[in-house]
Design goal:
Length: 392
């Protein structure tokens, strides 16, 4: 590879949520944090160069992206997935979770029902609850190492609760599924039948492996463009979460107007100047770097799954179809959620995301961020191996 992803970068004393708040969260000093979904890998050098040049300019006033910025966003998705969204249909927000909350506020009223398929990224549920909407859950069905949607339950929950909004995770975090076109069509047709608007969180869409192909929800069927919006961001692909930049695709004019009105009511108008700079550089100069990164992370996922299969009895792992997250099944160990946390955190010294926080179907699992140097991943796996074997 042209780029060195084995290099260990010390992130301490950088205001890092992942590293600088270990003590505040009551974790042991030597813990390896692999919970939050940002990478321990340096970003694309072209982005760093663009940020240096912008910093040297010395003025950081109010900033608005021009059309060429959104053309770069559209161009990235065209090259990666064949999707050619209209650049004029994007709106910048400080992040995808911010956008989810804005959609909930602008498209539903207090007490309205919002559907999610759990286990799923936990801010989906908290965003619904914090905004005083009714959370409706349709659980995914686990078959072996894969998950699928329970379409009968999905539709029944929509009808019984008068669901107004469905938040789709595509690719799915934490279970690693990349939804096939026929799966997206089934979900979309149900939503069409019952007038349910779809917010598709596609922040992990660049991390898709093997023969799997990410299909943006509006591309699955031409009819879906009118009932959906897509949340995108360079934050996962280029490790830019701290830049506070996301690009939200809203093709329907009336929905976009409601979204913009909600932004106005919050008082948010202009994005972060450095976020705009970083995103533009990523989407115009980051293809080669990202291709190498993706290959490196995929090799990490394969390595981890194979290591666990060979060395850690009672724990099941598989290579996800998408994302850089491992969804580890500890259910064979028959531990309570509390005891599982003690195993991974206290005994193994690993700070992971406990499965139960992802909702229905998450108990007995742990989510692991594998986007780190191989040596760090190996050290974590060796710790986990010793802790699990000490149980017997």
């Amino acid at each position: 590879m042209k780029y060195d992803f084995d290099k260990i970068i010390d992130r301490r004393n950088t205001y890092s949520v992942k590293y600088d708040f270990i003590a505040e969260n009551g974790k042991r000093e030597d813990i390896i944090p692999m919970w939050i979904a940002d990478m321990d890998l340096g970003t694309c050098p072209n982005i760093v160069s663009a940020l240096k040049e912008r910093a040297e300019h010395g003025i950081f006033g109010y900033t608005m992206p021009k059309r060429r910025y959104f053309e770069a966003v559209s161009g990235w998705f065209s090259r990666r997935s064949g999707w050619q969204p209209d650049p004029d249909d994007f709106i910048c927000t400080p992040g995808v979770v911010f956008a989810l909350n804005t959609f909930i506020k602008s498209l539903t009223s207090e007490g309205d029902a919002v559907l999610v398929c759990q286990p799923v990224y936990y801010p989906f549920a908290s965003s619904v609850k914090y905004n005083k909407r009714k959370l409706v859950v349709s659980g995914l069905i686990k078959e072996g190492c894969a998950y699928r949607v329970d379409y009968e339950d999905f539709e029944r929950k929509i009808v019984e609760n008068g669901v107004k909004l469905f938040i789709l995770c595509s690719p799915h975090n934490p279970v690693g599924r990349v939804w096939r076109r026929e799966e997206l069509i089934k979900m979309g047709e149900i939503c069409l039948r019952h007038n349910v608007f779809v917010i598709s969180d596609e922040i992990h869409s660049d991390f898709v492996y093997g023969e799997n192909r990410h299909i943006p929800f509006p591309m699955a069927d031409g009819r879906f463009k009118e009932i959906s919006a897509v949340c995108t961001s360079p934050s996962k692909s280029f490790n830019l979460a701290g830049m506070q930049i996301s690009n939200i695709y809203i093709p329907r004019k009336d929905v976009r107007k409601k979204f913009e009105d909600e932004l106005d009511s919050i008082g948010y108008w202009e994005p972060n100047v450095m976020g705009v700079t970083a995103c533009y550089a990523a989407y115009t100069e980051g293809d080669e770097w990202f291709s190498d990164l993706k290959e490196y992370i995929y090799s990490n996922l394969v390595f981890a799954a194979e290591y666990i299969r060979k060395n850690i009895p009672g724990v099941t792992a598989y290579v996800p179809e998408g994302t850089y997250l491992l969804w580890l099944d500890f259910s064979a160990l028959r531990l309570s959620d509390g005891d599982l946390t003690k195993l991974t955190e206290t005994k193994a010294g690993l700070w992971l995301d406990d499965g139960y926080i992802f909702g229905e179907g998450g108990s007995g699992f742990e989510r692991v961020n594998a986007a780190c140097p191989r040596s760090v991943l190996l050290k974590a796996l060796e710790r986990l191996e010793r802790a699990v074997k000490a149980l017997s």
